[in-house]
Automatic annotation (TrEMBL):
Keywords: Cytoplasm, NAD, Oxidoreductase. One of its GO terms (biological process) is glycerol-3-phosphate catabolic process. It catalyses: sn-glycerol 3-phosphate + NAD(+) = dihydroxyacetone phosphate + NADH + H(+). Transmembrane segments: none annotated. Pfam families: NAD_Gly3P_dh_C, NAD_Gly3P_dh_N. Its EC number is 1.1.1.8. GO terms for molecular function: glycerol-3-phosphate dehydrogenase (NAD+) activity; NAD binding; protein homodimerization activity. This is Glycerol-3-phosphate dehydrogenase [NAD(+)]. The active site is at residue 207. Homodimer. It comes from Pyrocoelia pectoralis. Belongs to the NAD-dependent glycerol-3-phosphate dehydrogenase family. It is found in: Cytoplasm.
Amino acid sequence: MPGKPKKACIVGSGNWGSAIAKIVGYNAARLPQFDDRVSMYVYEELINGKKLTDIINETHENVKYLPGHKLPSNVVTIPDIVEAAKDADILIFVVPHQFVRTLCSTLLGKIKPTAIGLSLIKGFDQAEGGGIELISHIIKRQLQIRCAVLMGANLAGEVADEKFCETTIGCKDSRMKPILRDLIQTEYFRVVVVDDEDAVEVCGALKNIVACGAGFVDGLNLGDNTKAAVIRLGLMEMIKFVDVFYPGSKLSTFFESCGVADLITTCYGGRNRRICEAFIKTGKSIKQLEDELLNGQKLQGPYTAEEVNFMLKTRDMENKFPLFTAIFRICSGQLQGNELIDCIKNHPEHMKSKLPSRTVYSKL
Ligand SMILES: NC(=O)c1ccc[n+]([C@@H]2O[C@H](COP(=O)([O-])OP(=O)(O)OC[C@H]3O[C@@H](n4cnc5c(N)ncnc54)[C@H](O)[C@@H]3O)[C@@H](O)[C@H]2O)c1
């Protein structure tokens, strides 16, 4: 017998939060296994003297973070996180990662104990006592719920335009898999579900660091070959990072949308690339450019680079990840942008020759 329709709540309403609300609202309205009404937690702000929640509920448009796109009318915005989440069976977390801990402590004990989570958040947090903590692990630990992740080559504007793309859900729990896939998949947004939760999430965070490198390359007018080299070395460092810190993950996960595809799209189209290009060209600080150019949207790459560096430094592993290290040092002003190439031209990837040795070669 089919159970009660499941209620979804979207925790967040930025650029990506609003784009995913369009999809979740559409599926909730048409599929019987979901409750029609989708609640969306909106961090309240005033737009020309009017509350953003009221504007979205009246016009069905997030005029600040996703202008020009209508949200389905069954998506209802609520400025109180507890009110928005209290009846939900599925909590979709899509806020910038710096706000997760506070939101989770507010929600503690106020949600259904049977609720499941899905984190769309890209980034890490510093763990107490050193190292980094995955955002889905924070959600699981603080709220005592199961939590899967969704990452992919999904620039929010293009998803909202309903341009075809793929995404990856990392989920170990076989009961959650079909629920999450059905809530998220559409004709233009195709979902692949894999078991490798941690690797999917780590890819989503690390690619933003590489995107900063791609932005530096663009700012320095170094061209497409150099950018491809940065993307490739970035991918190799991502694989190595997962291998060292999250052993047991599968190499095949890097060939899903969350891996190589997200890396490419972010290094050509994302906000981290754009701000880092401007950082080189204008000489302004990252923070200043974030405030000036992003209209309230948040940057992830430079902060993730700092968190990763904190972890690498404490383990004396900076030289094993020269690209991540150089990007952190450029973002934090310890190196000039034009020193990027010096830092990576003797990359460990170039040292492990796959050719026959010089003596054998010279006899050919
Ligand atoms: N935008 C994309 O294309 C995209 C794609 C995939 C994943 N992501 C990831 O999704 C996550 C959310 O990004 P986004 O693009 O939806 O957001 P955003 O950067 O567009 O907007 C920032 C959001 O943070 C909210 N906010 C500001 N102060 C807050 C506070 N104190 N507490 C709670 N919320 C506050 C704002 O109201 C706004 O909704 C990030 O981890 C991002 O990396 C984004």
